[in-house]
Amino acid sequence: MPSILVYLLRRILQAVPVILLIMVGSFLLIQLAPGDAVDALVGDMGGADAAFVERMRQEYGLDQSVLVQLWRYLVKLAQFDFGWSYVYEQPVATVLMSRLWVTMLLMVGALSAAFVIGVALGTLAARRAYSLTDNVISTLGLIFYAMPSFLLALLMILVFSVKLGWLPVSGIKDIGAFHTGWRLWVDIARHLVMPVAALSLIYMAFYMRLMRTSVLEVMDLDFVRTAKAKGAGGRRLMFHHVMRNALMPVITLLGLQISTVLGGSVVIETIFALPGVGQLAYTSVIKRDLNTLMGIIFLASIIVLVVNIVTDMIYAWLDPRIELQ
Amino acid sequence: MSATPILQIEDLRISLPAGADRPYALEHLNLTVNAGEIVCLVGESGSGKSLAANAVMRLLPEPRVHVSAGRILLDGEDVCSRSEAEMRKLRGDRMAMIFQEPMTALNPQKTVGWQIDEVLRLHTDLDRKGRKARVLEILADVHIPDPASACNAYPHQISGGQRQRVMIAMALVMNPRLIIADEPTTALDVTTQKQILRLIKEMQAKHGTGILFITHDFGVVAEIADRIVVLRLGELVESGPADQILNRPQHPYTRALIAAVPALTPPPHKPLSDAPVVLRASNLRKSFAARGGLLSGRRNAVVAVKDLSFALRRGETLGVVGESGSGKTTVSRIVTRLLESDSGEVMIHDRDLIRASRADLRSLRKDIQMVFQDPMASLNPRKRVVDLIAQGPIVHGVPKAEAHARARELLELVELSPAAADRYPHEFSGGQRQRIGIARAIAMQPRVIVADEPVSALDVSVQAQVLRLLADLRDRLDLSLLFVTHDLRVAAQLCDRIIVMQKGEIVEAGPTAEVFAAPEHSYTQALLSSIPGRDWQPPQLSVA
Amino acid sequence: MSATDLDLTRPAASRAAVMWRRFRRNRAAVLGLVIFAAVALAALLAGVITPGDPLRLAGQPLTPPLTVAASPFGTDQLGRDILAGILHGARISLLIGVVATVISIAIGILIGAVAGYFGGWIDDVLMRITEAFQTIPSFVLLLTLVAIFGSSLTSIVIGIGVVSWTAPARMVRAEFMTLRQREFVDAARNLGVGNASIIFREILPNALPPVIVFASVVMATSILMESALAFLGLGDANFASWGNMIGQGRAVLREAAFCTVIPGVAILLTVLSFSLMGEGLNDALNPRQKK
Predict the structure, then answer these.
(1) Hey, is the C-beta of A186 within 8 angstroms of any chain C C-beta?
(2) C253 → closest Cβ in A154, A296, A300
(3) Best of B84, B107, B123 to mutate (most A CBs within 10 Å, chain A)
(4) pLDDT tens digits, B138-173
(5) Interface list for A 62-101 with C (CB within 8 A)
(6) What are A95-105's pLDDT values in tens digits?
(7) In the prediction, which pLDDT does C1 show?
(8) Which GO terms describe its biological process (chain C) (predicted)?
(9) More confident residue, A192 or C71
(10) Contact A226/B107, CB-based, under 8 Å?
């Protein structure tokens, strides 16, 4: 469908100013930070003489005007060159890429679990509105919603690792076991069960509550009455008429929350010692590795924008009223 | 077979949940629909007429609202004792329903064909090919042009009239014994309404279906009813053959309702040609840019109003009539400069409103005030009535105490109790709110009042009162009215002259009496011949 | 029936009374209010019930709860009284919740109102900025701000406010876009009322109810964000904080889970109270229009 492609292209073009704003914003943030890259480097080296510092400044272009520096910064970012990480002694891009897959696994796992379970429970609660089932589901939703993810993570560790010994406490795979093939994947999955659960519960609660209200609202709409007047009922009515329409706000929320989920992975990866981007963000803050932090912000923003475009496409595909022109 | 009526409602009572404003939505309703008969259930808002329809289909929001007494017989069999599964077999098959708002009554995510096909899937054993053929056949029956492509269209891609045809096709596809039509033409333009009414009659004659037709519009009733049942606040007031109820109503309420229907006889032509012109609009033009993106390029702009000129004299009421999309509402917004026009001028006392500077505009606004369509939406719900009315004068420098005192006087002028001053808009009925809106306009002591469909959201009986008030104030305060409406009966009652608009242009203009008696343009002729119940002259009734 | 439809209905009860009645009907919301009152009381009376610095040594390290009268909730591995930590921590949580929410809602209203009312290029520019903020994961941005400006209480509060204004801004914008098309706005313009007055006096009061309900959500997430920061050891070390207590309790999770669970329950209850009250406020301010 060419119209879909045009729509896609337009959405990508719309994302360009956003990316530019983020680039400029992150540059300004670095400018606001006390000290610059050379100070950080010199600090790491334990001090250096003034002439050396001056030479380094020239080398990094820090003696140029702010606008020139901004331009150079943008050009570098556009080439995915985030600079050098003084902590990892590697280009930031390399560090990021080696850790990205862990975070992606965690995110995709958490969001799909949250979406599927949340939508199912929300629909169930709405169909039995104000019954005991609904009350139990809604109360659980409220509690999960109020539960800090780190508390949940610690409690799960206490129960499933310390007390029961079912699941590993930390890491992405057993160190020293050197699994290969499907054994490796089973091992990784075992390591991800608790992190995914801890990260997803709050979003599950979100989707559940939203789906419940949305289903109740759609059930009140005229076209559902029309469907009933045609003799439709039961599953057919729920599936074709109610759920598909009720999903729309949930999908919107899903798109909006990608960035929050990425933020949430910082805490979860730190607790479970998962070698992902979130954990990297935490260590970068502790070690004040600004280059890496900016790299993370940029990479995360790109991921969020891509996912947003994908959710928009799904939305447009589900709702024929969105003009694809 | 001829002996058993299709639908019999006996002594029906529908209970409302505790805490509602009355215990029963409907009581002691008796009504019969025979084969090939159209029975109109007539009532104003709150009469319980729609609940009665839903009760027959067993689509009430049970158990909060439920049938608590009486029987509903479909072909002699009681509907109320059926299980939900049995009801599902009946709905869509032996009885079907058509709703008011064809846009919201169709699932936006499914194609038209799919939605008609669903009825066949639910109630027949036809295979895909057979169903497809039947869908195309029924779409052709309801005169949808090009049924094959209509099948694949989504509801938002077809016009309102076509959507209602689709609804009718959906209701008819199983050849049901009974069709319940709940205000099926209320949301449509008059010319479309006429076509849909004709279609309903045609289909009914072809299949001998019984139709329970719910409406508030006596014009529509006069057009199609065989028999009439009048409801008021849940009680049956009067019922009988159409001719008897329409021309010789007995009950005072029916008499009042019928008396409130504006007759199609325009007022005698006022000699106004020597009165000074207070507002002259010339060469107004407005187009709206269609939404376009970076890549798709700008789509052609939609012209809402093209080259429009008219003059309004002192004490005159000029009606602007047209169907939706004619640009009549745009005219009201340009003339008050709530919308910037592309070109042209609006002269009020030798000053051009269109090109006025910010400061000039502010003082000019005093001369031209507006009464809006939706009496709920046009009053800020967070403000007391006295503040609403006094707001304009205060903005223009009148001291607060004085403005408030004047606002209280104005309440009396629009026949509201002074106690209304300290209340909030939601505490009033629709007609009362519209009176407040009128008081707010008059508080500015304008020369011209632009009224945009001021009575279209009101019940007929209230409509008549508000129109009377407007006419009365116009004469007492020597105001000029620019009256925008889609309702030709209302226009006939109030306007000295009318302009008829179609697609942003004036197709005909002249004294109302002349235009109504001898329309020249073909569109005006079509419009006038579409007025529902145009052949019925409401009897002159003395209302006690 | 009155022939002319002029009778007024009985005077309605005052707005506040009606809202309180609707709020009260939601039992969960009342429970939320009670919990919230308890938290607020704890914050107020912290200095009276447990005077002195909550971070000082108060007894034997890792005293279990309900064993020593002086420390009913027990002590942590540094011998600090957990009850004192909980009570003083309530101050920090509420302070951060309220101030950060006020900051984010204020920015949100300003940006959303201007974008939604004026539309056009102003809306485009403001929405791109909003999108940029929304695209950066807020917790990562907060971490960056803390890394750059330090982890004083002030910078944390401002940081949380600055990273959470986008949702209220979008919401206010959407409300304004709907409301500016309502006829009462046209009516005000027709009377000659100026733009600023229309935005703040005509539209804003009508746009506020959903924003107030949403403020309870912002407050809950602010508290969660602060506790997550403190949990990671990036909070202000000069103040007792629930997140901090959990973070330190983690080290003794196996032998003394109460060091983690007690402050955890405190956070849970506080956030829960905001959600529950939010639902009650929703009932009170946005009653569903029933036919």
Answers:
(1) no
(2) A154
(3) B107
(4) 999 888 888 999 899 999 888 888 899 999 999 989
(5) none
(6) 888 899 999 99
(7) 38
(8) peptide transport; protein transport; transmembrane transport
(9) A192
(10) yes
Pairing of strands B95-98, B66-74: unpaired
Amino acid identity for residue A149 in this structure: S
Residues of A whose CB is below 8 A from B122 = 230-232, 236
Q: Are A224 and A242 spatial neighbours (Cβ–Cβ below 8 Å)?
A: yes
- Residue window 30-59, chain C: list those with CB within 8 Å of chain A: none
Segments making up each domain of chain C, as ranges: 82-285
B109, A320 Cβ separation under 8 angstroms = yes
- DSSP state for residue B251 in the 8-state scheme: S
- Confidence (pTM): 0.85
Q: What is the DSSP string of B317-361?
A: EEEEE--TTSSHHHHHHHHTTSS--SEEEEEETTEESTT--HHHH
How high is the pLDDT of residue A257? 85
Q: What is the CATH number that goes with domain C82-285?
A: 1.10.3720.10
- Give chains near B: 3+ CB pairs under 8 A: A, C
What string of DSSP letters covers B428-497? S-HHHHHHHHHHHHHHT--SEEEEESTTTTS-HHHHHHHHHHHHHHHHHHT-EEEEEES-HHHHHHH-SE
Query: Does residue B317 surpass a pLDDT of 50?
Result: yes
Q: How far is CA C172 from CA B96, B460, C34, C137, in A?
A: 43, 38, 29, 21
Maximal C-alpha separation, chain A:
87
Counts for chain A of helices (H) and strands (E), in that order: 13, 2
Phi, psi dihedral angles at B376 (to 5 degrees): -80, -45
Fold of B1-94+178-259: Rossmann fold (3.40.50)
Compare all CA atoms of chain C with the CA of A270 and give the residue at the minimum distance. Answer: C232
- CA dihedral angle for residue B152, residue B157, residue B161, residue B164, rounded to 10 degrees: 50
Burial B4-17 (b: 16+ CB within 10 A, else e): ebbbbbeebbbbbe
- Alpha carbon of residue C22 to chain centroid: 21
Q: What is the pLDDT of residue B298?
A: 47
B186: contact with A, CB 8 A cutoff = no
Average pLDDT for chain C: 87
Q: How far apart are CA C187 and CA B369, in angstroms?
A: 9
CB contact set of B508 (below 8 Å; sequence gap of 6+): B499, B500, B515, B519, B520, B521, B523, B524
- H helices of chain C, in order, are 15-25, 27-49, 82-118, 120-135, 138-149, 153-163, 166-179, 183-190, 195-197, 204-231, 242-249, 258-285
Return the closest-CA partner of residue B305 out of B271, B354, B235.
Answer: B354
Q: Which residue has the higher pLDDT, C45 or A321?
A: C45
Q: Beta partners for B393?
A: none
As a whole number of angstroms, the distance between CA C36 and CA C269 comes to 8
The neighbouring-strand residues paired with B96 are B179
Q: What span, in angstroms and rounded, lies between the C-alpha atoms of B258 and B489? A: 13
Strands B210-215 and B178-182: parallel
Sorted by where each starts, the structural domains of chain A and their CATH numbers stand as 93-318 (1.10.3720.10)
Task: Give the separation between CA B374 and CA B470, rounded to whole angstroms.
Answer: 16
C283 touches chain B (CB under 8 A): no
Boundaries of every domain in chain B? 1-94+178-259, 104-173
